[in-house]
Design a protein that fits this description.
Helix content: 25-40%
Distance between the termini: 34 Å
Keywords: Methyltransferase, Transferase
Number of helices: 7
GO molecular function, one term: methyltransferase activity
Number of strands: 11
Structural class: alpha/beta
Domain Methyltransferase: 123-220
Number of domains: 2
Oligomer: single chain
Organism: Archangium gephyra
CATH topology of the largest domain: Rossmann fold
Largest sheet: 11 strands, mixed
Strand content: 15-25%
Shape: globular
Protein name: Methyltransferase family protein
């Protein structure tokens, strides 16, 4: 399979343990990481790169619902997207495409501009899965704008499906990492857009994950989170039973507005459909976001 991280982009990464700078040690092919490892210049930690995928997480930190859901995604990764496409209209009353279009406007992709020096803006998707949101990004971006898209996920099975999608459909140059949303392997203020779709309620510590997303986002950038929440108007037995089956992994799936980092502004909570919320917010320049460690 193709590699997804150029050697020159190692500078974007940071050690998940101490946030120190990482250096590449290993074999590259065509300017892309292939096999070897990344070492931290500060704490000395080493992070392997296997088949082109940097593995920037500690297995001992994967526990509880993180471990459960990773096992499910790794078990049947190729069925996830087809089942989502099939079941969404039956359960939600909207097609999957319609549901996705409802939140993509919150990314404000049409206002993205190149970084200082002409460097492409960076977009991060936490929990990228099989890459179902990539076509939305391509359609919503301003014509001719070059961007760097980074995606992290704990499921190597889902990332394998994402790589197959990239080989089949593009876009080329998407950077993929095996990483934990609770300890994102990036320095502060690295990304111009950050979003997470369909995973926050399943994280063992949603507040910590939200803090990490806010930490790596540039001040003022929109952060968007989407996941399950039952619409207060959906009172039928069918809706309640279906929702309970979808959210078996947690007792109280809801919009985690109360867990947003201190200082968050421009907070907007919307009910996208019977079963899904969309939460968007920003961090102002003066807010200090360190993420819980």
């Amino acid at each position: 399979m193709m590699c997804t991280v150029p050697v020159e982009d190692v500078e974007v990464l940071a050690c998940p343990s101490c946030r120190g700078k990482l250096a590449w040690e290993g074999r590259a092919r065509g300017g892309l990481l292939e096999e070897g490892g990344l070492s931290c210049s500060e704490c000395g930690a080493r992070w392997p790169v296997v088949e082109g995928l940097p593995r920037l997480f500690r297995e001992r930190e994967v526990r509880g619902t993180d471990r459960l859901l990773r096992a499910l995604y790794d078990g049947l990764p190729s069925l996830h997207d087809p089942l989502t496409t099939l079941l969404t209209p039956l359960l939600q009353g909207h097609s999957e495409a319609e549901l996705r279009e409802r939140y993509v406007s919150r990314f404000e992709l049409d206002t993205l501009v190149p970084r200082p020096g002409g460097r492409p803006p960076r977009i991060l998707e936490v929990g990228i899965g099989a890459g179902a949101n990539l076509p939305l990004l391509a359609r919503a971006l301003s014509p001719g704008l070059d961007v760097e898209v980074w995606g992290v996920d704990l499921s190597t099975g889902m990332l394998g499906c994402c790589r197959e999608r990239l080989e089949r459909e593009g876009p080329r140059g998407v950077r993929l990492l095996v990483a934990d949303a609770h300890a994102l392997p990036f320095a502060d203020h690295t990304f111009d857009r950050v979003f997470e779709i369909g995973g926050i309620n399943g994280y063992r510590n949603p507040g910590r994950a939200l803090g990490e997303m806010a930490r790596v986002a540039c001040p003022g950038t929109p952060l968007v989170v989407v996941d399950e929440q039952l619409d207060a108007e959906a009172r039928s037995l069918r809706d309640r039973v279906a929702f309970r089956l979808l959210t078996f992994y947690t007792r109280e799936p809801h919009c985690p507005r109360e867990l947003l980092p201190a200082g968050a502004v421009d907070i907007r909570e919307e009910q996208l459909s019977r079963f899904y919320f969309c939460l968007s917010f920003r961090m102002p320049p003066e807010a200090l976001v360190t993420g819980a460690r």
